[in-house]
């Protein structure tokens, strides 16, 4: 009869041959969770050790990797899958009896929400992010921000504080989307949900999380993101020092946020803009010039003094020391025939200070090709959100409460980062975004 060691070796080889369990092995090997395990062991002390801390933690991670939206589904998988139990560290001599009970998981999850344990769990995530900065070339140079609405499993508040089935932390949120239909008509779509919002800051090149926070659904994205950036400045300043570009949609269009990014941290904001001009004007005159105008999207044009023809000026770059954007005469740059060239008061170029309008004029000019290329990378956030829904089953979650959701997302983002690092360390960088196989 084969020994336990031989059986374990046989199971391990089987694990290597199975893609799903191989992904779990990668995650478990790359999670920096020793400090967390020590704190959990200390907290348990001399209490019952029927279900070891390490086995419970590993199986909880397995539930995320295998997309189980509930503890009961995870337990069913553990009961039927001996290889999974072995990989999680369950006692092989006990068989299916080694699978923790539902109440044991409930107590374990409650322990993870304790302040000291929750802080240790957050350090697991931040340690993985720091490893990404060290091992992934250029990680953190291009950051993107976006908020994702997460509907609560409970559709309304409970009637009393003791109602555990009701949702006491969530409230209503609303997002308005503006888009063009097939006929080019501007349409508006409104999304309302009862629940929470996860505010995510991520690397847009690697599509990996850098920082996040969870709020009620009604919280506006801009003040939460400002608070998150200031928190990073206090506790993890290397993140902001490495960043060069910050990309976000028009929901983050805010002069204070732009000032915070550029003037305090020298991060170039690439944020879509809303039309807040209330006077109905299509263009405004650049101060000190008789014939140079700009629109709310930052397109600078000159008006021919003879014919009144308006032509877009050529962007010539950002002058950081001057704090100005430089634009060239279109007749000189593009070779136009300009009837009013002789009477034009402009020289070959003009400089526009960022202070003219800090929302309209940013260090990376909105009218430049580079701005458009950088902004296109914002779709990385949408792909991360899609993975949260489909690969990590967030659209099927059964979580109640802001604190529980925050702990769960910390686990999810840690798994996401650990698996990506594992792929890179196994010389499989092309698979680092194939985080978890979507459920059929």
Radius of gyration: 27 Å
CATH superfamily of the largest domain: Ribonuclease H-like superfamily/Ribonuclease H
Helix content: 40-55%
Tell me which CATH architecture of the largest domain applies here: 2-Layer Sandwich
Largest sheet: 6 strands, mixed
Taken from the alpha-carbon principal axes, the silhouette is elongated
Proportion of beta-strand residues? 15-25%
Between the first and last Cα atoms, what is the distance in angstroms?
39 Å
Number of domains: 3
Structural class label: alpha+beta
- Can you count the helices? 15
CATH topology grouping of the largest domain? Nucleotidyltransferase, domain 5
Report what the structure shows.
- The structure is a single chain.
- Strands 1, 2, 3, 4, 5 and 6 form a six-stranded mixed β-sheet that branches.
- This protein has helices at residues 4-17, 19-30, 34-44, 53-65, 71-80, 82-88, 102-112, 115-135, 221-235, 237-242, 255-265, 330-334, 369-376, 379-390, 402-425; strands spanning 142-151, 171-180, 186-203, 208-216, 245-248, 268-271, 284-285, 292-294, 300-303, 310-312, 314-319, 324-328, 349-353.
- The chain folds into three domains: 12-113, no CATH class; 119-154 and 170-273 and 375-431, 2-Layer Sandwich (Nucleotidyltransferase, domain 5), CATH 3.30.420.10; 283-357, no CATH class.
- The protein has 440 residues and is α+β, with helices and mostly antiparallel strands.
- One of its GO terms (biological process) is DNA transposition.
- InterPro entries: Transposase_11, Transposase_InsH_N.
- GO terms for molecular function: DNA binding; transposase activity.
- It holds the Pfam family DUF772.
- This is Transposase IS4 family protein.
